[in-house]
Write a structure and sequence with these properties.
208 residues, alpha/beta, 6-stranded parallel β-sheet, two-stranded antiparallel ribbon, 8 helices
């Protein structure tokens, strides 16, 4: 049985917030400073009107995905790390996007040389991770994500999964603390590849 890598996409495999900010600037006359990690408080209208509400923020995100996904760029060393890990493991990209974005995300990743199964999700990732682990026969599994809330969700729903916190965007990584529910925090794919491979080689679940 092959080990399993379940990996997020935005700010793990592809840069997103820097390009989302550029789009908000060019298209909506909004300044975007994500240093604090909150998309709503990061937005400020340059015309002096009230800042966008949370509902408006979700509207902007839906405007970016999938129509502006072509702006996104590859995280350094991500493609090479996945290619090396795929020699011994199954890989699933679990991305929090609406279901209609699955095909655009598949095509987007393939253009960067990353061709693996993609699953879209809304909400916490604990349940879909647990389902994927069961589907693959409960192998040794590593989960990689940039958001602490998802590590907490996976810790509760699939505690046997090794959890790696990764934030590939330097402006975010510098201000965001390690996720309490993750087993490790690594923001560079070269080091992350070694950490993941070591979990696979050990052949033990996280709660062993």
């Amino acid at each position: 049985m092959k080990p399993l890598l379940i990996c997020d996409c935005d700010e793990v495999l592809l840069h997103m917030v820097r390009h989302f900010g550029t789009w908000l600037d060019e298209t909506h006359d909004i300044d975007f400073d994500i240093a604090g990690g909150d998309f709503v408080t990061a937005m400020k209208r340059r015309d002096g009107k009230p800042a966008p509400s949370r509902e408006e923020m979700w509207g902007y995100l839906k405007g970016f995905f999938p129509d502006e996904m072509h702006r996104q760029t590859l995280v350094p060393h991500a493609r090479e790390a996945l290619a090396a890990l795929a020699q011994a493991a199954d890989i699933v990209i679990l991305t929090n996007l609406e279901d209609e974005c699955r095909q655009p995300r598949l095509e987007q990743l393939a253009a960067f040389g990353i061709e693996h199964r993609v699953e879209c999700n809304q909400g916490g990732k604990g349940d879909p991770v647990a389902r994927l682990v069961a589907e693959h026969g409960d192998p040794v599994t590593v989960f990689v994500d940039d958001l602490a809330v998802h590590h907490d969700s996976v810790a509760r729903r699939a505690p046997q999964v090794h959890r790696l916190h990764m934030i590939s965007e330097p402006t975010l990584a510098a201000t965001m603390p390690p996720a309490p529910a993750a087993h490790a925090r690594i923001d560079d794919w070269r080091e992350a590849q070694d950490w993941i491979a070591a979990r696979f080689a050990a052949g033990r679940p996280a709660d062993a």
